Amino acid sequence: MDTVKIPNSATYSPLALTDVMFAAPLASRLLLGATLPGRVLQAAAAGAYAGAVLGDWASRRGVRKIDFLETYTSDVKHMDEMSEARRMDDVRRYSGELMAIYEPVARERDILAADVNERLTSYIASVTGQRVETSSAVRQLTLTRFMVPFAVGSCDILSGDIAVFRTTGVFEPHILAHEFCHRKGYLKELEAQALAYLALSRSRDPQLRQAALAERVYRNLRVLDGDDPERYGALLDETPLSGQVLEDFRRLRPPDQRSGLISDALKELYDSRMKLTGQNGLSDYDRGFTNFLYTYETAVAEGRASA
Fold first, then answer.
1. Pairing of strands 153-155, 130-133
2. Residue 214 lies in domain
3. Which of 219, 290, 208 is nearest to 249 (CA)?
4. Closest C-alpha to 132, from 173, 181, 68
5. Residue 302 has what DSSP assignment?
6. How many structural domains does the chain have?
7. Chain mean position to CA 63
């Protein structure tokens, strides 16, 4: 089995290089009353960023990516729609499985990230015959947190710089795996959702497997709630979820959440950007992801795809 190593050198910088490029001139002006130091720092950060991006791009040229349609009989443009009844069955089944294996995630984030990254690397290698090794470094905060307030995490697709903005409990391994998929070159959100799920759901580590189950249940609930927070809360009450797991589900989408003018505008902008890159929009995170799993698992049951 051959190995491709993507250096991701930008991820080891103490501060996100993109943040330094944007914030240095302003910070210098506010703190020192001068822009020159900030511009010098900005130029240095831009040079380091460009070098990191170029190095990663050169390494990624040797990556053999998974052909989703050939491997799973489904991709961004080829999916069957799940019925509401099937979604409800999914919620009941997988929330029950989740509670049966649940244990609190006690590992520090850096250790958890390394474990998740290795699991994802091994899963992709089992499909392609190639290990794509990347950094497991994760930041807690970048300026993206303020630009996209509805996001839980982010990944700079050029440098591979990843941030997870808040603790998400049972969901955290899946969120990490999703972002690591981007770092390995899978830029479409549905592909990142699917690969993260498939890798973690087949893990022997219950804390990784339970994260996949939680993501599947959550995304089905988001489709079923019709973007109605009160409906989401009612659906949660009908599941066997309890204790800390139930609190994690409520925190990820609080029942009393309301849309705001700025948040709605940013979501529309992000949705449009996704569509311009050959995706279906924000629906790929939930409806597309769950429809993908439904289509693939149907093909496995019928012998048209390998499990």
1. unpaired
2. 68-301
3. 219
4. 181
5. T
6. 2
7. 20
